[in-house]
Design a protein that fits this description.
about 250 residues; alpha/beta
Length: about 250
């Protein structure tokens, strides 16, 4: 595993994005870029499990932390979907010679839709427990938290900012953007997800412009805890194998 395969990656405002690279099969052009959700980072258990499964199947992967998260530079209070979509764009710039598969979890999946609807460098799109209605999410989860004073899920290193709330409201929902996503799209979601309802994946899948598949993981929670992480990884790997460009 390496964190320098593509040199230093910086976003549009110069913040260094921390990443880990795992190689795949020699000669394969696919690169699976993995983005996390709100208050998370590249080293969440589901992300590490997925990267390991991809490597064993011959797929290279790059999982990264959005600016202000994990070991990436930046202020967490600036983190929001539109800024993270620009971070993803910076990663795409850095790996421009590779055929990119983007896998996003939770808010990272919403970020993927924001990017994929206007950037055809994302050849394949995968949403894991994907957030769709960003405005509703912010109301449900942080409606009783005072911005600038309180924290997301009581995490002291994750202060709730007005910038985050404003951006979540401005995005509103990524559902209408699905009509502009032409890349083949896989959505994997657990039935016991209490953070982002499973129905959100069904709703956005019905609006997708291109090929779409929904995988329902019975009993899985938002973080694909326990055995669900491996089930999720197997679903992603199997889907990618069907679309592999190098045998």
């Amino acid at each position: 595993m390496s964190s320098n395969e593509f040199g230093v990656i910086r976003n549009a405002v110069g913040e260094r994005l921390d990443y880990s690279y795992q190689p795949g099969r020699d000669g394969a052009r696919e690169l699976v870029v993995i983005g996390h959700g709100v208050t998370a980072n590249k080293d969440r258990e589901w992300a590490v499990t997925l990267a390991s499964a991809l490597s064993m199947a011959g797929f290279a992967s790059l999982r990264f932390s959005f600016a202000g998260n994990g070991e990436s530079e930046g202020d967490f209070r600036d983190s929001c979907p539109t800024k993270e979509a620009r971070d993803l764009g910076a990663v795409l710039d850095a790996v421009e010679d590779r055929a990119v598969v983007y896998v996003g979890h939770s808010m990272g999946a919403a970020v993927g839709v924001l990017r994929a609807c206007e950037d055809d460098r994302i050849r394949l799109l995968v949403s894991l427990a994907g957030m769709v209605d960003t405005a509703d999410f912010a109301r449900r989860k942080f409606g009783d938290v005072e911005p600038g004073v309180g924290f997301m899920w009581d995490k002291p290193d994750c202060p709730l900012s007005q910038a985050f709330l404003d951006d979540m409201a401005e995005v509103g929902s990524v559902e209408p953007l699905a009509e502009a996503v032409h890349a083949p799209w896989l959505l994997v979601h657990g039935t016991e997800d209490t953070v982002v309802p499973f129905d959100e994946s069904l709703t956005i899948a019905n609006r997708a412009a291109g090929e779409v598949e929904v995988v329902e993981l019975e009993g899985a929670d938002h973080l694909f805890s326990g055995d669900a992480a491996q089930e999720m990884a197997e679903a992603v790997v199997d889907w990618l194998r069907e679309r592999r460009t190098v045998p």
